[in-house]
User: Fold these one by one.
Assistant:
Number 1:
Amino acid sequence: MQPTMSMLELREELVYSRIACNSEPLAKPLARVFTALLDEWKTVFFQQLDHWDAQTDAEFQVWRTDDVLDERVDDVNRILLNHTDGDREHPKYELYFATRPYDLKRPVLGEELESVRAWLPLLEGEDVGPLAKLKKPIEQAIEHADAAVAASTAADAENERFRRDGALAQFVERVRQKRDEVYAELEATRVADPKHKLPRDWSAGFFRRSSRTVSDEERTARSTARDEEKKRQAELAEKKKAAREKLRAAQRELAALSKG
């Protein structure tokens, strides 16, 4: 039983033991131990939900600030193209865009945020009026993006702490201790059976059996799978963002055509 196990799996362990105790007259008084743990489980589970909600809120803030940053990139691109008569090879344009705006905006913050941050010294002495006026909005966008990234990092760290050595880890340890105590009482009951009719594995039957032992190789495989899933989710986020940007570009083109 590990702190990293699913809370629903942990609950199933407790429910199983309570049902098993209630089904056996000799063990029925011990069912209350698991009832108490299940009550405590609810409190810990709601704490877990709070951590998950905090992570979701942070995720939303990251996406929202990323959208604003994308808008500032579009503003800079539009102003520069107007200033250079659409020449993307103009030194002024290349000073801001070493890569295409579309590619610059693909990451969700990350590299995009750092690239836009590097514009601040350029904007400080910018001689193109409309571009110079973007300095303050871009500073604000960066400030909000930094705050969103910090909040996301903090939410992830708090959830990890909660699971590794916080309330969840402490609860799992209490469950382990209580299980050991219940097992010891069951064993005492089995040994004290005057007719010696209880089988040697009688006490073990009150705890959910593991289907099999997980090997080191499987643990490694599971860890690799988790890492690959994180990578897949990051790539998916980039694809979603790219698709959204294409849609916006198409909408802008349609709007321009309708005006013409």
Note: The radius of gyration is 29 Å.
Number 2:
Amino acid sequence: MKLLKKHSLACTPQQRMVDQLQAAQDSNMEVTSYFATVKRLLSAALVTDPSTSDYTMQWKSGDATECNFFIWNHTPSIVINDKFGDFRRGHMELPCTLSRADAEAVKTSHFSCDHVIIHLYARFLETIRSIRQKKNSGPMDTDANLRSKVTEKLSQMPRQVQSKTGRPGEIVVTWVDKESYVASELHGLDYKCRVTLHRERTCASTKNDLLGYGKLLDNHKRSSPKNGEG
């Protein structure tokens, strides 16, 4: 069997699924508000810790495979099945109360399914840790601590952000977030936050980094992985 694998004449079912995702076309799925938010939040999660901050993401059309993702060993990038960018398809594997209610009728213009991000991030961490151990790489924070950090940041994330003009020279921005809502409704607390406004003319060059897009991978062709997969 080892000889057959060496000459690519045999492979495990798991490796076959990885090969199918690798051979799939780059995702051409419409980048809806839901998909864009999933991309942005996963990218932001990866920069939470230095051990994962160099990883970029590439999305593939995953209709023909059950492989969720794989990680290239020779370069820090994660190839992900684009089903997770679609509310209905992603929730067939990762259901929640919202999707069980009526996945077809749910309005997904505002993202609230943090469990999708947390699940994928946890799987990324498992695979990255395994790869780092094989390479005898440097220390890495525990998966539990990293998941806790990301979960906390997600609970603080502004949602349903809206803006309108106020008095002359004034912009009124409103949003909701889970943590402040719970603190207010259950505990009578009024959380304060700091908002930093960036001018387009002075901060345009760093906008991608500020928005968490800097780590999103442009579609590039890669050689065959050896591999970490999910």
Note: The longest strand covers residues 159-165.
Number 3:
Amino acid sequence: MWKRGYRPRDFYEQNAELKGVIDLIASGLSTSEIAKKLTLSTETVRNHLRSVFKELDVHTRLEAIVKARRLGLLAAPALGPQPTDRRVPPE
């Protein structure tokens, strides 16, 4: 699948914008939300997603998140409410 001596981590270390996209899909943001947050067009975000999917050899966002975590590209999810949670905690 990958060239000898090549690691997916190298790919993301060389391209901070793609790393940002995978971090944001792991946060649960939609394509349009990612575009707004990174001040990119939705088409650029879609192109980045295609690159991420191709690089990780996956077909869905969920597969990309799981594989990125497995490869150490994403930290394990923290427990408890996150800043991106849209729910209001009970009082």
Note: DSSP finds five helices and no strands in the chain.
